[in-house]
Specification:
This protein is of the alpha/beta class. The chain contains 17 helices and 15 strands. The longest helix is centred in the middle third of the chain and has 15 residues. Bound molecules: 3-phosphoglyceric acid and magnesium ion. The site of magnesium ion has 2 residues, from helix 16.
């Protein structure tokens, strides 16, 4: 696999370099247009700076959210261009379309050492199409803009999308530093984790995590389950979970996993049970055996946080994906904070796997440098640990 360093070694001054970044950043729900966590933009800066400073004409492309294949102002990348310019300390040209007249003109006018951001890739049907020809036609248009392609969008390498998969087949292609680093870390954790190895999983759905649980169970000493997904496990253990999130069709699967795990899956022993999904909801800590029928669990309780923290304490390797509760709402943030703090204290290597958990680390004001690695890809890192082939990485290897 060729890398950004190889490309820089070849010399990029005056060359048009198409860079796939994952600038799919979260926005503040109360202040539209305000980015709540710019971690993904910061993570790709070294690549953009290296290319800019070497005199390349840098054409950056990304998706944002999940628009439906046509322009939708809710998902414009314009605010991200502004933030990117602040972070780069130099101007960023923004094109109001992705491969249309605006983009074409902006590419033609781009100067050496300048950075251009194209509008959201997913405003075009071809980007995510399942039809190879439709994706290919869009990839052709993107590829026309440049002489070579750098993929540094680790968060999107698990997607077989035009900008991730098909463009690589059309241009000389190179892996960016972020993709290389992420793959190196995940390879180490999945192939040779130093023992004891503890995995902490949260987030809302068991169904999303089923494959990774099955892949990890044979490798881990303990698998701690919090977040919305713990309630289907608790139900499988025979507890009533009130109005908590429950995937009824997954109960028997959870029961099987618990049996297979032979005590290595650790569940909460208490939860914060609220009257409704709201920051103002009445809420109390209850044991998992006593969740009232009219309440829903929105965080793990203090006894569980302590239980999880002590399970993490002796680990040499920890992988964490998914918050323990609704950390965005202050009354339900303590579980995520407590477990995250315990992870920062281990005498070993910790990996925060992606999107929500990485955002949680920063939103809760935890020290990022206290973790071994904070991944920019939630879905991508889980699929890597499942042992799946990542289309974006496979395309770079060809
Ligand atoms: C993510 O946030 O998970 C990545 O940016 C990929 O986005 P997607 O899940 O919408 O494909
Ligand atoms: Mg995703």
């Amino acid at each position: 696999m060729k890398t950004l360093d190889d490309l820089l070694g070849e010399g990029v001054s005056g060359r048009r370099v198409l860079v796939r970044a994952d600038l799919n950043v979260p926005f503040d729900k109360k202040n539209p247009g305000v980015i709540s966590d710019d971690g993904r933009a910061r993570a790709v800066l070294p690549t953009l700076i290296a290319l800019r400073d070497a005199g390349a004409r840098v054409i950056v492309m990304s998706h944002l959210g999940r628009p439906k294949g046509e322009p939708d102002p809710k998902f414009t990348l314009r605010p991200v261009a502004t933030r990117l310019a602040e972070l780069l300390g130099s101007s960023v040209v923004f094109a109001d379309d992705t491969v249309g007249p605006e983009a074409t003109q902006a590419v033609a006018e781009l100067q050496d050492g300048q950075v251009l951001l194209l509008e959201n890739l997913r405003f075009n049907k071809g980007e995510t199409s399942k039809d190879d020809a439709e994706r290919g036609a869009f990839a052709d248009e993107l590829a026309k803009f440049a002489d070579c392609y750098v993929d540094d969008a680790f968060g999107a390498v698990h997607r077989k999308h035009a900008s991730v998969f098909d463009v690589a087949a059309r241009l000389p292609h190179y892996a960016g530093g972020l993709v290389l680093k992420e793959v190196e870390v995940l390879k180490k954790v999945s192939e040779a984790p130093e023992q004891p190895y503890v995995v902490v999983l949260g987030g809302s759905k068991v169904s999303d995590k089923l494959a990774v649980i099955q892949a990890l169970l044979p490798k881990v000493d303990k698998l701690l389950v919090g977040g919305g997904m713990c309630f289907t496990f608790l139900k499988a253990q025979g507890h009533e979970v009130g109005k908590s999130l429950l995937e009824t069709e997954m109960i028997s699967v959870c029961a099987d996993l618990l049996e297979q795990a032979d005590g290595r899956i650790v569940l909460p022993v208490d939860v914060v049970a609220a009257t409704e999904f709201s920051v103002d909801a009445t809420h109390d800590v209850v044991d998992v055996a006593d969740i009232p029928a009219d309440r829903l669990g929105l965080d793990i309780g203090p006894k569980s946080t302590e239980l999880f923290a002590s399970a993490v304490a002796g680990a040499k390797t920890v992988f964490w994906n998914g918050p323990m509760g609704v950390f965005e709402l202050a009354p339900f943030a303590a579980g995520t904070r407590g477990v995250a703090e315990a992870i920062t204290k281990i005498d070993g290597f910790s990996v925060v796997g992606g999107g929500d958990s990485a955002a949680a680390v920063r939103t809760l004001g935890l020290d990022e440098s206290a973790f071994g690695h904070i991944s920019t890809g939630g879905g991508a890192s889980l699929e890597y640990l499942e042992g799946k082939t990542l289309p974006g990485v496979a395309a770079l290897e060809k």
